[in-house]
Design goal:
Methylamine Dehydrogenase, Chain H, 3% helix, globular, mainly beta, five-stranded antiparallel β-sheet
Length: 380
Amino acid sequence: MKRTLTAVKLAIVAGAVAGVWSGTASAGPGRVGPAGGFVYVADCGYPCDGNQPGSVLGYAIDGATGALTPVAGSPFPAGTGSQAVAVDPTGRFVYVTNLGSNDVSGYTIDGAGTLTAIAGSPFQAGAAPWSVAVDPSGQFVYVANTHSNTVSAYTIDRTTGALVAITGSPFASGSTPISVTVDHTGQFVYVADLILDRIEGYVITRTGGLMPLCGSPFPAETNPFSLAVDPTGRFAYATNDGSNNVSAYAVDGATGVLTPVADSPFAAGKDPRSVTVDPTGQFVYVANALSDGLSAYVIEGKGALREVDGSPFSTGSAPNSVAVERTGQFAYVANTSGGVSAYRIDGATGALMELAGSPFAAGPVPIAVTTTAGPAPPAQ
């Protein structure tokens, strides 16, 4: 039987906490330069029922070891029931969706990783905003509103980071849109529909508005919960937390149409939530909330997934979100029962080795994680 959003919320209180995530912003495939930068974690507050004050935790990444150290001032206050976190591709702004207060908190990032609330924040969203994504050009932000069945779209003020609603926003979606992502080219938006078991696709207009793709929606398995597009823009992956598997699609670069790859879907752990593709475009990682593990896969030539030897890898309790930092050397997992697990990635195989000191201390319910290389100079 398909679960309603109310049932999902009850699962949250019980400990199988839900949320959405944002993977690493990447300039494209290939490991580049040393690791480092920052990790940001959205914490929805105990008992994560959408009624508690949320926060954002910030950590500096040790470029040599991947270890995490809290940045000055962390945690930073957010709205009610914080659920998702995303960083713009310049690394200058952080955005957090707040499920209970129906808005988006925005912050600037300084060179030390400290967050400062943007003037005018929080910014109004639809009902129960669950997921947030920033387009790769850093111009637009998209938010999936699960209770109003819409996607809010905003332009980013490149000087201040403030959000301004785009004409026509919010845009209609299906029933319970729970995850939103933007492809690497910045042409297409994809939304996971939890109740209707499908993926909805949109073309991004010149002004940042959304138009449905021809052929959309695209079928998924039971309760698709998270979406990721690989950095080459060739493949897309969706976790299905009701059927414990991952749907894989080939992406038509010209039209954005999704076509299931051979042998899709691929088995995952119990209650797979977050999915991310590493910035080299070689590996896929999936957080399995009810089996306390991280599934790891190699992307085969036509987009099929082959599980890595040793997968799944142990995490903390109820892992909900996974992100890989920009060089592809380290992965981070938000465990909703507490702590952020950290791993070194074997660049040849995709296997994971937990770092010394992991899991690192976090707030009461760390629910979503993302990474950034740190702020770049403002656009001219």
